[in-house]
């Protein structure tokens, strides 16, 4: 998840070298001894930002309602509040973001299992309720360690290749709906950083992905939806762990430098992550005692292929305030959300009785927001 602040770091190091050389010359003169050059700070760059965005067609797997005409509504509007931190130090980068997603009532809080419905597993009767929209907290961390910096060389810079790095990270979330997910995962691998025109970059990271803990209330023993045999038809605590799998994460950024000078306030960026099948989506060999359902996880694509950003602060106050206030619009596409097969998973991605899609396991939406640097 490295952003291209290497040029800033190089400039800082260059200025430090020039300052040291100047002081050495001054020491040869018959004047007062020169002061020692100040050490470089531990963090060469620190960048903190907050964002607000609105997503009109978000989804949450298994959460849907029926419209008066009988069609399925698996979409929900979401407000997103985010904090993002990036820093650059001598050997690499650190990137951290935490977001709060506030859904509309079509993605309800516990005890509703679907919009406006509380289901009583003991009696099989659904009763009306008025649950507010769910709130999800999601955090992501990525760290890189550059080979050029670790080995004090330029051997890993050639042509468009800027650097190769070790990369490690983790993700975690929690949500207060009936499913009550509590995802925990680790990633580790390499990152290949390439330069693009107009101060741009593209990073490609092949990784190992291990989701070692999550929670699924629908598989929990005693919940009424799963069976009664721990480890076979239900999970004793609802927690599910998966096998390690592969992942590829890509992100890019580029200024639209080909525009006329009086229009150079625009940039494009994007990201994509592919995560391989991680085993049975329920972590169970059978569910509800009716034999094995189609619960095999599928390759997941979580992407924002394009974001168009307008540098509002640069347009109003000049280059000195570039990217202090950004306005942006983006397209988000998430297929097989959380690894769930959007063509299967009865009761979640499809309606068990009819096979009709709930439209909740694929997220496809345009959304926009504002980002402020502080």
Automatic annotation (TrEMBL):
Keywords: Signal. Residues 1-26 form the signal peptide. This is Uncharacterized protein.
């Amino acid at each position: 998840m490295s952003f291209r602040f290497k040029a800033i770091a190089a400039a800082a190091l260059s200025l430090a070298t020039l300052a040291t050389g100047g002081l050495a010359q001054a020491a040869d003169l018959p004047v007062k001894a020169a002061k020692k050059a100040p050490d470089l700070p531990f963090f060469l760059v620190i960048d903190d930002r907050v964002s607000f965005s609105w997503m009109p067609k978000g989804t949450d797997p298994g959460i849907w309602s029926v419209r008066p005409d009988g069609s399925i509504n698996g979409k929900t509007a979401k407000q997103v509040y985010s904090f993002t931190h990036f820093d650059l130090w001598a050997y690499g980068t650190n990137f951290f973001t935490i977001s709060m997603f506030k859904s509309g009532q079509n993605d309800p809080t516990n005890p509703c299992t679907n919009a406006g419905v509380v289901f009583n597993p003991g009696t099989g009767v659904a009763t009306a309720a008025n649950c507010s929209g769910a709130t999800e907290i999601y955090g992501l961390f990525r760290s890189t360690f550059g080979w050029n910096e670790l080995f004090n060389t330029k051997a890993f810079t050639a042509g468009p290749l800027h650097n190769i790095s070790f990369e490690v990270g983790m993700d975690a979330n929690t949500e207060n709906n009936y499913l009550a997910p509590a995802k925990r995962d680790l990633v580790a691998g390499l990152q290949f950083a390439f330069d693009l025109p107009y101060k741009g970059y593209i990073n490609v990271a092949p990784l190992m992905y291990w989701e070692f803990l999550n929670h699924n209330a629908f598989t929990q023993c005693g919940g009424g939806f799963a069976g009664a045999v721990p480890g076979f038809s239900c999970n004793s605590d609802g927690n599910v762990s998966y096998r390690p799998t592969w992942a590829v994460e890509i992100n890019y950024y580029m200024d639209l430098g080909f525009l006329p000078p009086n229009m150079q306030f625009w940039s494009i960026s994007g990201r994509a992550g592919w995560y391989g099948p991680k085993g049975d989506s329920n972590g169970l060999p059978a569910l509800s005692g009716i034999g094995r359902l189609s619960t095999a996880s599928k390759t997941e694509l979580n992407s924002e292929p394009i974001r168009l950003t307008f540098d509002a602060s640069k347009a109003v106050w000049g280059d000195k305030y570039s990217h202090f206030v950004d306005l942006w619009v983006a397209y988000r596409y998430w297929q097989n959300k959380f690894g769930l097969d959007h063509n299967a998973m009865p009761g979640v991605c499809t309606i068990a009785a009819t096979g009709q899609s709930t439209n909740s396991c694929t997220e496809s939406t345009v959304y926009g927001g504002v980002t402020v640097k502080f």
